[in-house]
Specification:
Largest sheet: 5 strands, mixed, barrel
Strand content: 25-35%
Helix content: 25-40%
Distance between the termini: 123 Å
Order of helices and strands: HHHEEEEEEHHH
Number of strands: 6
Structural class: alpha+beta
Strand order of the largest sheet: 1-2-3-5-4
Shape: elongated
Length: about 200
């Protein structure tokens, strides 16, 4: 029995001594500079998390486990993305440095291209926008234009902006009451004229 316990202690001691220390195990937690991250990642965006859907995936070794499908509205792009909204695949247990992405929050995302889509990979230096001022400043000269839809969003038209005018503009809107009053007067005059003919 003593021989068994001694062997067990030797094996456990070897395992403990040969295990990587915390710095080695979490080497990806070291934050790269903005320039290093720019070279390492395919897409860099400042984006708001609009929706998160859970997905289960399997198949290839690199895409096993549980993931989120995160819908983002892109506010600014610094590399690789020109669309106003994108979907990103994210590990369910790891998102931005402090955990998975949260709905309604804005982050500076560092993404990898995967086929036709985007992945928010493990160890990406993604950070909340509130702590990303330095990185955003360092990337500012690399900013890309975001392609906006050519069609007027219905919400803007419903808010009273005339099509083609900037948000908040009332140009053209001041004529609408004049046309309504004029149209109303025409209807009243026609009604009076028809009533007069019957009498």
């Amino acid at each position: 029995m003593n021989k068994f316990v001694l062997t067990l202690l030797v094996v456990l001691g070897t395992i403990v001594l040969s295990a990587p220390n915390g710095a080695q195990a979490l080497s990806c937690a070291e934050m790269p500079t903005a320039e290093e991250a720019y070279e390492r990642y395919d897409g860099i965006v400042l984006a708001k998390v609009e929706r998160i859907e859970r997905e289960r995936s399997g198949g290839s070794a690199e895409h096993t486990g549980e993931h989120h499908r995160v819908a983002l509205t892109v506010e600014r792009s610094f590399k690789g993305v020109e669309e106003p909204s994108i979907a990103v695949r994210e590990n369910i247990t790891w998102g931005a440095l402090n955990g998975p992405s949260e709905i309604g929050e804005t982050y500076l995302f560092f993404l990898k291209q995967m086929g036709e889509g985007w992945e928010h990979p493990l160890c990406a230096p993604t950070m909340p926008a509130s702590t990303a001022e330095g990185a955003i400043s360092a990337l500012a000269d690399k900013e890309l234009p975001i392609r906006r839809p050519a069609v007027e969003p219905l919400e803007r038209i419903a808010e009273g902006a005339a099509p083609g005018n900037p948000p908040g503009s009332t140009e053209g809107a001041e004529r609408d009451p004049v046309f309504a009053v004029f149209g109303g007067l025409v209807v009243v005059l026609i009604a009076v004229a028809l009533r007069g003919r019957r009498a």
